Fold these 2 entries.
Entry 1:
Amino acid sequence: MSLLDLIERADARARAATAVACLDRCLPLLAGAGVEPLRPLWASCEGGRDWAKRLAAVRTELDRIAGDVSGADDPVALVRAALAAAPSDFAAAPLREWADACSLLALRVHGRFDAPDRVAPVDGEHPLAAARNGGTAAVGPLVAGELERQVRILETLAETSGTAGSGAGLRKALDLSTEGRRVLRAVMSRRARVRS
């Protein structure tokens, strides 16, 4: 099943968790290793309890941590914009659009680190669209890994939806996201050393 099919079939819990996970994996661009400003949203993914209140708190905290970011196309600005676009209602329909947007954002951010020193081709969106639809596409290793991670998270959440183990499914999604954040942080660190 393609990534887009999984998002389409997901319930509110899975859509919220996958969106938060996608943004969570982009956090090495914004914060250090011990900073986890999205943690309150993870706690609301199970049933939406205090979602709107926690979302507002996360936005405020992210603004405080990020400070002034220049450029609307800056990855940090894109993550903040994605959080600003998050629905206050914890319902499947509005969360579907947000999950889709966060998925694409995470793939784009990872794509920048696959080839940071060259300009993306004009048709750079085509490979991402093909990959998200389950087709074969020429994407770099970071994008391929991110795509696989998104699929694994959605599959894990679907398997545990409505079961006594639904909390364990969210924990597994958080673990997969943390692993992805470490991968991106390592790539960023390696690139910074090479440029120094």
Note: Residues 166-195 form the longest helix (30 residues).
Entry 2:
Amino acid sequence: MALSGDGSGSGEQMSGPRDLNGRPVSRTRWQRMTARLGRAGEEGLATDDPELVTIVGSLDDAVSSATLLSESAWEPEQQVVLRHLLMLPTTRVAEAVAVAGLDGYAAMDVSDTDRDWAATAPMFSGPAPAQSELVVLGRVQLIDAMHLSQERSRMASLGSRHGGVALGWQVWQRASSS
């Protein structure tokens, strides 16, 4: 279920640039007109864009967002897909996804790579707890260290309120052409 992120609950996935809080950025009249002519400036990023690569991520709550971003290939002026991996009780997944949808997050497909990465989370020394499910939530936005930290905290709280835990996060961005 992909929500618009505008609070309308329309169920439509919004495309186009997002701000630091993940909200759609209003386009100017000129941008709307040129988009109709097929000369849109920056293409909107989608959470399932095949050109996306993992720029940085962590399963460690103690590592600062600023440190990780500064040591990565992250391009601050470019939109990213911010992904969070959560382990939630199966009975609470739908409710957690709906709550996250209010902030523009959508459930993403969970890959084998996600499962393998989540299995290395420090809080799990073995298989996932019974009756739990790995959930990946993502949204398009601009990020900086402060807003990344804010979103990490938001997801930790979401996981906790729904009887689960936020395992980690990733920043996906289009590969740099340089």
Note: Strands lie at 52-58, 80-89, 106-108, 132-141, 165-174.
